[in-house]
Structure formats: C-alpha cells, structure tokens
Amino acid sequence: MIVTRFAPSPTGYLHIGGLRTALFSYLWAKKNNGKFLLRIEDTDKARNSVEAANAILEAFQWLGLAHEGEITYQSQRDEIYAQYIKQLLDEGKAYKCYMSKEELSELRETQMANKQRTMYDGRYRDFNDTPPEGVEPVIRIKAPQSGTIIVKDGVKGDVSFQALDILDDFVIARADGSPTYNFVVAIDDHLMGVNQVIRGDDHLSNTPKQIVVYEALGFEIPSFYHVPMIHNHEGKKLSKRDGATDVMAYKEMGYLPQALLNFLVRLGWSHGDQEIFSMDEMMELFNPEDINKSASIYNTEKLDWLNAHYIKNSSNSTLAELLSDYDIVLTSHDKKEIILDILKDRAKTLKELGFLIQEILQTPTSYDEKALKKAFKSDSVEILNAFGAKISASSELHLPSDYHALMEEVVSEMQISFGKIGQPLRIALLGKLSGPGLDSIMAILGKQETMLRIANAITFQA
RNA sequence: GGCCCCGUCGUCUAGAGGUCAGGAUCCAUGGUUUUCAUCCAUGUUACAGGAGUUCAAUUCUCCUCGGGGUCACCA
Prior knowledge:
This protein has helices spanning about 15-30, 50-65, 80-90, 100-115, 165, 180-190, 205-215, 245-250, 255-265, 280-285, 300-310, 315-325, 335-345, 350-360, 370-375, 380-395, 400-415, 420-430, 440-460, and strands spanning about 5, 35-40, 70-75, 95, 140, 150-155, 155-160, 170-175, 195-200, 225, 230, 295. The chain is mainly alpha-helical.
C-alpha cells in the first residue's frame, strides 16, 4: 500500500507551493488506494502557532483534500524521539557533544578563513573523559566520513553525494533535549508507514542526512520524489512577498477550488496535451514519475482561463450557492436562471460574476458620455418612446423572446436597422454600450423596471 | 564559495536520434454578435552557447554560460 504525507510546519498560511506538493501526494495515494496522511511539524515552539495549523486545515477543507486518520503533531511526540535518541546513544551510533556555541562559531570562523567548508570536526566523537563543567551537551549522530550516498529519486534520477563533501556528525538533539528536523522526519515517516515521500526539491540536499538516520535506526528508506520549485517572476523561490501565495486568498478573489487544483496539477506535471482535468482524471492519470525536472514560474494567466472555464461549465444552482460567499443573493428562480445563463461566460472569477450581476440589477444613475455621443442620435428618443409604448401596452411579458418580438415590431414598423433601437436601449438599460443581450436583460428586470429605465433615459436626453 | 539540481515559444508544457519542433495561455487579426464577452478561425514567437559521438542531434556525452536550491542547537 502506498502511503504519502504532507508535512507542513505551521509558521503561516498554506501557500501555493505547499498546496501543489500536497495535491501531488494526495493524488498519488488516492490513485493507488493508499493513504494520504497529514503531519504538522511544530517542533519549533518559538515560531509555530495554532492559528497557522488551523489555517492549513481550513485551506484543505476548502479544496476538498481530505487526509486519512488522525493528524500527527510532532510537538506531542517527544517521548518517542527521546526513546530513539537513547537507543542510538546506547548503541554508540550517537554521542554527547560538549562543545559550546562559542567554540563552534570559533571553529567555523577558522574554517572559513582557511576556505574550508564549515563542518563539525568530530572532537567529541570518541570522548570518554570527564565532561567540561557548565555545558549542556547536544547529541550528534555518527555520520559516515567517507563513501557515497545515493538518493534514488523518482523525479531527478539517482543523485549521488560524497560524504566528505556534505556530511558531518550533525546534531539530532539540542541542548534542551529537543530533537532536530532531519532526525524526526525520518522517524515520523517510518512510524507513520510513509513509503513515498513527495516534497519540494529544496529538501534534496537534506535527504542524505535523513538517510544517515534511516540507516542508523535500521529503517527502510522510502521512495523520494523531489518536485522542482515554483518560482516568482524574478525566478526566485516563491515567498510570502510575492503577492497572493496564500491559498485562501484565492477563495476571496473568486477562484473555484477545481480551477486552482487544475492549475496547480499542470505546474510541473502534464499528461500529453491535456489541459482540463477533473478530480477523477487527476487521480487516474497522475504519476510522480511524470513530474518535470525543471522549476516553473508562477503566472496566473492560465489560472484565470481555467477559472472562467469552470465557471462557464458550472450549473446555475452551483454558482448561485457559491455566490452567497460574495454577498450575492439571487432570489427569484427564473431571474436566477436567466441572469446566470447570460453572465457566467463573461466572468473570470466569482467576484467578477457578482459584480456583473449587481451591475444589471442596479438602475443606472449616470450614462457613459462616449456612449451617448456615439449612439444616442436625434431620433433615439422617438424610437425609445415607441418601444416603451409597446411594452406598456403588452400584458404578456415574461421571456426574453417576448421582449425581442417587440423590438422586432419597432424595427419593421419604423423601417430602421436593429442597431437604431439596440444601441440607445442599451444605454437606457445599462448606461453604457456593452453587455449581454437586451432581451434577456429586460426579462430579468421585468416590465416595470424596464419602462422606468427607458423613461429615465428619455427624460435625461430631452 | 563547496555540494546538488535545472535550461524547448513571454508563461505552462509535448516531443523523439531523421518531426513543417506539437498543444495551451497570452497577444494580434478576422468571423459570429445591434454592442461587449463567449465561441470559432488565422497568425507572430522557442530547442542558451560551443565542442564531440553519428550518415543525421534540439534529443546522447563533455565543457562554458545562465538560473535555482542547500550548506543551523529552522523546518
């Protein structure tokens, strides 16, 4: 069984990059009838917050990414880690290091001065004497001092590191006894049964250290898939400074979960020429082996297109429900159907859709200057009067076609082109020259409101 | 700086030892539309550079250049 996980550290909201790795992990587990687990990496008490953890959960909920079982909180697992630290100590695979912080930084400075790489020199590796006074020791693991460590990566291929280049006896427990990241990751992944690790490739250089831990503890090493970063416009790692990276901000801006997910799944992954993926298709087709090797640049043009696509293809009832989050409440059933029919292929976001709806429902309080100049001619008042009279006289006005028939009548009786009535009428109804079909608008507004707007325009011009 | 990863249209990407290097988006133009949007059609734009292997390289190898990541008692 395939078990994947998403393991954020709760130092802020869930961002786009994290969401993408979460999505990849989720899809891969689901595709294989496996499990997708969630672990909160909150061992750094100073920087973590409960709010941040909740924000991540909220985002998951909005997107419908459900994790399996209980959430693992690292902060609640101190005894477990302590147990493994003791084990390594007992087995002589780790040791106490009494080097003070001052001594350590002194060592670093000399190394830098000599253009050597900075690393711990192993001075307490085989220490048996009486420890120095007043220093709380850290625990260091005995890492190999030579040889090659190969990370078998499903995305990058085999990546090999020389122990000499990158390893030293790194700290697995701080002076206060708390364990460090590279140590707990290995333990938690093993204990949780995670066997496929999908994460950002900024972790690739950490992986050899984790492999040292896996091997010291005799754990089986999982498969790794290091997915390339998402970069900002400058080509740098995406950070909080790069505008909207908070996933929940996309909800506020009016993006649909499906559009965001579809957008992200195509960032760094593809399946031939296919652009549109339903959740089911993603689950069926996704394979981490197909993830790109190169980083991608974050650019929302395609997200807008996808969002427009999903809005267009959503049912009116779905849209009406979603719009309530944007303070748009559509009451009458008929109106709701017509208004969404004509507007849903004009909006890139739900927020925009809401705006377009308001624009139609509100009686114009002013008229666009250029529109008046261009389309409100000397005979326009006469034409509008004639049309208004027809509306006033008609008792059966419900459908767009009812209004359309009246427009046709005016056109043929007055021997004018359709534009002669359409343009001024559009100004009267909307205050400007662009917008959806007039017959539908009138059907939405109803007889009274339509007559009012026509009368207003005539008064304004007269 | 050491180590590691990466390099196809502006962007997201497909591609394979021989392709007119494909799709999508964006942009532009045309059609549809009384208008705008949608939709449809058309078009501009790419294999970082240099060697090598080969009959043939954008594809394989090496170098250069460029970009990124990582080097903590953070995660």
